[in-house]
From TrEMBL:
Record PANTHER family: ALDEHYDE DEHYDROGENASE (PTHR47495), BLL3820 PROTEIN (PTHR47495:SF1)
Aldehyde oxidase/xanthine dehydrogenase a/b hammerhead domain span: 227-305
Pfam families noted in UniProt: MoCoBD_1, MoCoBD_2
Single Gene Ontology MF annotation: oxidoreductase activity
Protein name: Xanthine dehydrogenase family protein molybdopterin-binding subunit
Source species, domain of life: Bacteria
Length: 730
């Protein structure tokens, strides 16, 4: 993917949702540029580089050579969205994909953003939201440019536009078989106004797609990542670039009280030593110089942080008290029917607690940013891998007290995000150090920095309660989540596809003082672990097969049943596992998609460790833009889900994280990855999310398989060998 890092950003109109809005976005644009004429401002500050004839919109630029540049507004962190979104435009444009060049769009949320929950526009790549938030908008954008091409060709040939068709960047006249390329049209094109409005019915039917969903359309970012030419922010080099590191407080919230500043300033290669609210920054001529200087720091920290008294080993005792009291502040998620009456009239009542540890993002590229402030201090340039481009630009402008237009952000590839890079802390730190040292800087977080000063998926306790009637049907469902950070607790707690009349779902917040953050699938991971494990426990109490039990719960939902049935059909579920192994099943909705999964496990009893051998996953994500990439994304979600299921755990003692690197924070290794089979179901519905869809059901599927194998239930993630041993001995 070609990424331009030297474009400025100017204002444009609103994102073109319809013809009128698109024309508003085109206001001031030039469709016909003849030799000697000036090209009108199109918000892409590379006009001087354009050929003398071009067709331009906020999303697409077609030059006279036939090259089609499509602007990508989202972060590319390995998920493939930077190919998928331009592909959507190209589909409706009838573009020759081989002639398409992809560039990052300007940072202008009013044009290139999507609507947040609050309604304002953001350039934010999170929540498996890229394709599903832009799909319809970009189809309209492509269709409207195609309409302009057809009407310009019709005017040129003096024929009716409805006599024309297009394919592979060429317009054809049906009657005479005349043809003209998009590049040739760009030589004389002008904005055609008063055209018939384009509506949904004018967009291509799914069965006529030639690019979307085709396996031979490959991701554009992969070749450069394979040959090593891909550029990440950490690769950026500038004249007079200095390096910097920060020694942060071991406990979040504490501050530097005193330190040996003069000693550090005297060390070779050190340019500046900067006291920050949360630590001490060191700027120097080389990375090794600042690392050595940091090792020589002797800091006395304040000890008044909330997290100072936090111990992860005892937090569940506190959570248990909150779960069992009616006096704790409770925030409702969903309520229906009468759970009290259902409990009183039940044939059986069950209660179970499920726990999840803190989890670290473990993105492979260290957090980093490069910052260069202009000599007059009136503008700044920033190179960063960010999931929230518009938010970062605004945050830098606020910190430096600059107009937003004076902040020039150049997004780069991200070496993994998983929610961590939607925060701006590491980039704002770099800005602070560049301001203090008055030199261009590159800030790098080491793995130890990130692990011990990161932001984690919060630990949770899930209290599940259910009632059964005499036929084993669920008549009451109660689910309370206890944890830190209200933004990270409620997602996935609802059970919209299960037929249960009486429900009470809520959560309560217990502050820890630690930094917590969205982690892949956010609250769906902990919540679906509890939900899908508890469904199996209820099925056992009802003396029913867990697959058939779920079919009854999904009885009024044919789409969900199709996904569940597909996962079972592709696995040996009905045949049964071989000796020494067991199968587990789970189902969930997430990010607009439905997934079901069967896993096959065995138990290495001497080590008390679980081995996952095979995984079968069925996914209905609606229209899939890139099929091969969707399968790859699902495999990645399963692998990361297995890591958080079997081994990933952050522990905290007196507010300080005990893990420091991958020697004591384990992630899945290649040799541990099971055989994975993914089936994509064709529902034809609008796209759902893919990157996070399968992750939440990985843990309950493994836990349910363990229960089938041993008759014992694991109720705390991860399923560490010590916990397995304890459960087996119970």
């Amino acid at each position: 993917m070609t990424v331009s890092n030297d474009r400025a950003n100017t204002e444009q109109g609103q994102l073109p949702l319809n013809r009128r809005q698109l024309l508003k976005g085109f206001s001031g644009l030039a469709f016909m540029v003849c030799a000697g004429e000036a090209l009108a401002v199109d918000s892409l500050s590379h006009q001087a580089e354009l050929p003398s004839a071009a067709l331009t919109s906020p999303w697409v630029h077609i030059d006279s050579s036939g090259t089609i540049t499509i602007y990508n507004p989202v972060a590319e962190m390995g998920q493939g969205s930077a190919t998928a979104l331009p592909l959507i435009v190209a589909e409706e444009l009838d573009a020759d994909w081989d002639q398409v060049v992809i560039e990052y769009s300007p940072i202008d949320a009013s044009v290139y953003g999507h609507a947040s929950i609050a309604g304002h526009m953001m350039m934010l790549t999170v929540g498996s939201y890229a394709v599903r938030s832009y799909f319809t908008k970009l189809r309209f954008a492509g269709a409207m440019i195609r309409q302009q091409l057809l009407y310009n060709a019709a005017r040129h040939w003096e024929v009716a536009a409805d006599e024309l068709t297009s394919r592979n960047s060429v317009v054809y006249h049906r009657k005479t078989q005349r043809s003209i390329s998009y590049g040739d049209i760009a030589r004389f094109a002008r904005l055609e106004k008063n055209l018939p409005p384009i509506s949904e019915v004018d967009l291509k039917p799914v069965n006529e797609f030639t690019l979307i969903g085709k396996t031979d359309v490959l991701r554009r970012d992969i070749p450069s990542k394979v040959n090593g030419s891909a550029v990440y922010a950490i690769d950026i080099e500038l004249p007079n670039l200095h390096y910097c590191v920060i020694q942060r407080a071991p406990v979040h919230g504490n501050r530097p009280q005193s330190f040996n500043k003069s000693d550090i300033e005297a060390m070779p290669g050190v340019t500046a030593v900067v006291t920050l609210d949360h630590g001490v920054g060191i700027v120097g001529s080389s990375y090794w110089a600042v690392v050595k200087a940091r090792r020589a720091l002797k800091i006395t920290w304040t000890d008044d942080a909330l997290a100072n008294t936090f111990h992860s080993s005892t937090i569940f005792d506190e959570y248990d008290k909150v779960a069992g009291t009616s006096s704790a502040p409770i925030k409702p998620v969903h309520h229906s029917g009468n759970v009290e009456e259902a409990q009183q009239s039940a044939a059986k009542n069950l209660i179970a607690d499920y726990r999840t540890d803190f989890v670290y993002h473990a993105q492979m590229e260290p957090l980093n940013s490069v910052v260069r402030i202009a000599p007059d201090k009136k503008s700044v340039e920033l190179w960063a891998g960010t999931q929230f481009a518009s938010g970062l630009r605004d945050a830098v402008a606020k910190q430096m007290q600059l107009p937003v237009d004076n902040v020039h952000l150049y997004p780069q590839f991200l070496g993994g995000g998983f929610g961590r890079r939607s925060w701006h802390d590491f980039s704002l730190e770099a800005v602070s150090l560049a301001q203090a040292a008055n030199v261009p800087v590159k800030l790098i977080w080491s793995r130890e920095d990130d692990l011990q000063n990161g932001a984690y998926r919060p630990a949770t306790l899930q209290r599940m309660q259910g009632s059964l009637d005499h036929q084993g049907k669920i008549t009451r469902w109660q689910h309370r989540t206890i944890g830190d950070n209200p933004m990270l607790l409620a997602g996935g707690a609802k059970i919209p596809h299960y037929d249960v009349a009486n429900q009470q779902i809520d959560f309560s917040v217990v502050p820890s003082g630690l930094r917590t953050k969205h982690w892949r699938a956010v609250a769906y991971g902990p919540n679906k672990f509890a939900i899908e494990s508890f469904v199996d426990e209820l099925a056992l109490a009802a003396s029913q097969n867990s697959y058939q039990y779920r079919r009854q719960l999904l009885g009024n939902d044919p789409r969900a049943l199709a996904v569940l049935d597909a996962a079972v059909a592709m696995s040996p579920w009905k045949k049964g596992a071989v000796n020494g192994r067991a199968l587990g099943l789970a189902f969930a909705e997430n990010v607009g998609s439905l997934t079901a999964m069967v896993v096959e496990i065995s138990l290495e009893e001497t080590a008390s460790s679980i081995r996952v051998h095979r995984v079968w996953c069925a996914l209905d994500a609606g229209v899939v833009v890139q099929r091969e990439n969707a399968i790859t994304q699902t495999e990645g979600a399963i692998i990361q889900g297995l890591g958080s299921t079997l081994m990933e755990s952050i522990t905290v003692e007196k507010g300080a994280v005990e893990q420091s690197n991958f020697h004591n924070y384990s992630v899945m290794k290649m040799a541990q990855v099971p055989e994975i089979h993914v089936q994509l179901l064709e529902s034809g519905l609008p796209p759902g999310g893919i990157g996070e869809a399968a992750l939440p059901i990985t843990a309950p599927a493994v836990g349910n398989a363990f229960a089938q194998l041993t008759g014992k239930r694991l109720r705390q993630l991860p399923f560490l060998p010590a916990r397995v041993k304890t459960v087996l001995a119970s």
